[in-house]
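Our preliminary data section would be incomplete without showing what the modeling component actually yields. Below, a chain of 404 amino acids is followed by its predicted structure, encoded as tokens that our downstream tools consume directly.
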Amino acid sequence: MSKNDLLLRNLFLGGREARCQIDKIPLSSVNVLPQPRKTFENIEELAENIATNGLLNPLIVACFTEEEVESYLKVINEIWGTFIHIKSLIPDDLGYYNILIAGERRFRSLNHLWQKGCQKCSEEHGQELPGMCFNRHFKDSRVGVSLWKNISASKALFFQFSENIHKPVPPAEEAEAYQRLFVLIKRMNAKFTMASFARSVGRSIATISNAVKFCALPDLIQKAAKMPVKQGGIPYGVALQLSRLQKIGESEEGLLWWMTRTIIAGCNVKAMKKSVDFFIIDKTSGQQNFLSAIMTEEQEKAERKSFIKGTVAKTTVREIWSYIAYFKRVLNLFENGQLGLENSAFSSKSPSKVYKELVDLMDQQLGEHMKRVLSYKDSEQSKKILAEAQVLSGQIKEKFNIMG
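Predicted structure:
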């Protein structure tokens, strides 16, 4: 074990007996360091809930001395590959450093209340200075926390992972965090098993094993698994199926082709598993498909190109027209009185959000794509259609005041 690893081991596993107390500390004194969760959704909604019902679960915060926080930063920087310095942290009035251990969604929501206020306060008091709404609801600028002192880095980090059982982190983000933490612990203690780690973070061995496999996949696949499917990403379950292909020796190029094919076909995890099952059986049985065995590299490329063009063209056109036809049928039911307003799928804001999403897609992505496609086709008719669409867009904005 190197001197650095020995130092990290002492920092990670050291510390006196930790003690906890329920306390209130200024919201501004809470420092946030890298944590497993990278995606934070519905912060405004949670803020409204906290404003109405109060903070039901306090934040978990570690209170460190300057020396302790320096040591803790060494561990954090090692796990996440960061270079955070103590100078970037804010001490409290007594010189201690309050570090958020768990509850970043709640912290962000509280900060939202501090900066922007809740909807009720905005309606009753108009635009206010930061903190006015927060102080109104919490009586002062402090927030309730479970404050830990003398806590070791290991206990603090395990708190983060077990806390996320209640509000799961997106699986790809969670997998990366598990793998980083497990690798660090394994470096410091070679006898520390995956089963011990799984128990420490409150997960199954299979979950941790899958996390390690996921993190061995090519970067492009890991990145895709961290993106929403609607933005071109893939489900975590699809990535795990790709790890099965990697295990039997599939190349990076082959894995990326499988990912592309899955995205085109609709990212169905069940269908992907079935395809991988058949492929593995076929490959490991020694009785590979005859056509695959005799196909040249050029023929294989042509086959892939044909599959992509056929699937994309067919699926894209079918799905778009299918959506339009379905929407027309449902709107007719409303117009004929067979459905009432209480049956509407839309909230008061959702039509404008749908409209904006469509406009953004046309402007940012589809527009650029169509410019390249139209260079090979007659563009005059397309220009005419787009001009008509622009007029309709103006009418929609005027009628519903959607865009402001």
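The beta strands are 19-26, 30-31, 59-64, 97-102, 142-149. The chain has 18 helices and five strands. Preliminary results of this kind motivate Aim 1 of the renewal.
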